[in-house]
Amino acid sequence: MTLVSRIQLRGLTRRFGAVTAVDDVWLDIADGEFLVLLGPSGCGKSTLLRMIAGLLPPTEGTLHLGDTDITHQPPQRRDLAMVFQSYALYPHLSVARNIGFPLRARKLPRAQIRAKVAAVAETLDLTALLDRKPRELSGGQRQRVALGRALVRDPGAFLMDEPLSNLDAKLRAGTRAEIAELHRRLGATMVYVTHDQVEAMTMATRIALLDQGRLEQLGTPAEVYDRPASVFAATFLGSPAMNVLDATVLTVDGTLSARAEDIDLPLGIDATMPDRPVRLGVRPEHLTIAPPGEPGIRAVVTGVENLGSEEVAQCRSGTARVAVRGTRPLGVRTGEALTLTARPEHLHLFDVGSGRRLTWQPGAVPAAV
Amino acid sequence: MVSGTFVEAPPLALAGEAGVRPASRETGRSRARRLAPPYLYLLPAVVLLVVWTYQPLAQTFVLSLHSWNLVPSTPMEPVGLANYEQLLSTPELGRSVWRTVVVILGMLPFTVLIPVAVALLTRRVRGRAQGVYRALVFAPMLVAPVAGAAVWQWLLDPSAGAVNRILGTDVNWLNTTGTAQLAIIVITGWHVAGFAVLVVTAGLAGINPDYAAAAKVDGASRGQVTRWVTLPLLSPTLAFLVLMTVLLSAQWTFPLIDTLTQGGPVGSTTNLYYLLWEYGFRSHDAGLAAAAGVLFFAGFIVVAAVLTRLAERLSHHDD
Ligand SMILES: Nc1ncnc2c1ncn2[C@@H]1O[C@H](COP(=O)(O)OP(=O)(O)OP(=O)(O)O)[C@@H](O)[C@H]1O
Ligand SMILES: [Mg+2]
């Protein structure tokens, strides 16, 4: 049997009364892809995943698996495996019976179930725990059991709803690597929900960034990080978040530069255009401290945070806050006045009204001002 | 040249950091003040229990060792274990125990099977319909048993009753040995089933819906989800209902028996409670009734202990 596990979401929408939890989402998830649904709490990630799983009927839109419309198929017939945010391990069943549950539902012979469970338990290091009940397990062990219950069956795709959210930092890093490795080995399609940007950046082949139920940006982790489609995307990824300042693009001596009272940054574009107010974005790690007198962002240091290998200087430029991140020590002190510069390719411009990214198009005639 | 050596970092001086260890001595008075509140909170409940439960229990036990006809002016005569001997030698006791068992078995469908089926089937009722439906189901519980009994007596009337008319029979339900017990069971069941449905509904609402969702994604059919997930997780509720049925069925039937059959015909509806009542308030043999009460009390304690043990073994702590 060939696995056709391409999942297509066509205008999927879900409303709860007046709340639109998921708003017209179009996604084409390729076979073998590791798609991460990323977004702040309450943006509709779980709702979207539950619709894909068939646990929640969409208000509008359709869902396709391979070539078949599965919008109205019950979850039993979708052949998807899901790891719940709460794990949802059956509390009355042992670990072995939990993992074997999907096979039992498919009426596999007992011996075969036992063999498969043993094999999965082996890979997840659960062999010693097979006779325990879920309540006798630690958070990390429960998470592995939940994973085992999904892995035991070779489904069309895996759906995972923040499976690592209950783990401590160390266990989370370890399990993150395990899941990524699993994906490489199985080559299975994964739809993975998280609000943790580290998980998204390290595991995803593509990130779907959601905001208030709408798809804000879709792209590889590098694309989403390097070319954020909006102010929301720019400030959601990255720690500390991207600095976003109000400025105006002016033509000075035949080149463009972003100016404001305390800002003077060349954009590296030789052209002329009418003045235009913008929102100027620059990541903390792309700001460097320039010698006094150079053009840049004039700021005063209000505090320095030690991250271990790096330091973050929190600054104030006019009324805006600007963070600078660099190798420790940065060599600045609270109260010090700085000039910060950044290379033109590291500057992002966004529209003031919509917050969408602005890209330079040479030769285009500007619309009426 | 300057000579030197490496010095190990000293261990953390925890005591210094945390300050002086607090003195562990405590005066008797402050200790009493610290430990007293929980007992004070318990006190009202304990007082009520003692006055209304334990004291009558003790009095019953004392009474069971006496002969007394309930007339305040006649003295109580101590008779030792004579009441117990008399009780255990009458065949009535054994028969009434057996009838009680029949009542309990007959009640189980009404307190467990039907409520589970109804609660499962009507789980999807939502909104205003849910309130209406619950009120309907619960209504019989609010009808006073004696009033209900009067209506049922009329329905079961051998000549003009609706039951005979609907079934096309001419059975004298309440005056035939076989059917009287059945009628008592069905009417009692009609009274308590709504309450049991509410208990099951509450139990179902307490189960995290993620388990059923996970089972569905895992490929379990609706029946499998019910059998493998919902019912096992409901087992503490079911155990509670079984326990209630075993301990209280005979008590629930009492007002109906007293109104409809008075234990007859030919004693066929005389269960433990009715027997006890007959001894005490028909034969005016308070000692014998008290002895019966003590015996039943002991018997039900054993049954309750066994059932609670079983229920604990069954229940899964859902966390
Ligand atoms: N059953 C429901 N009834 C009403 N509103 C709901 C329901 N489920 C979700 N919502 C609403 O839909 C929105 C999206 O919820 P959802 O659970 O999908 O968020 P999420 O992105 O998974 O958040 P989190 O990261 O906190 O898990 C929220 O505003 C939530 O309040
Ligand atoms: Mg969620």
From TrEMBL, chain B:
It comes from the Bacteria. One of its GO terms (biological process) is transmembrane transport. It is found in: Cell membrane. The chain crosses the membrane at residues 39-57, 97-121, 133-155, 182-207, 228-250, 286-307. It is a multi-pass membrane protein. GO terms for cellular component: plasma membrane. SUPFAM superfamilies: MetI-like. Keywords: Cell membrane, Membrane, Transmembrane, Transmembrane helix, Transport. Residues 97-307 form the ABC transmembrane type-1 domain. Its main location: membrane. InterPro entries: ABC_transporter_permease, MetI-like, MetI-like_sf. The keyword Membrane applies. Belongs to the binding-protein-dependent transport system permease family. PANTHER family: ABC TRANSPORTER PERMEASE PROTEIN. This is Sugar ABC transporter permease.
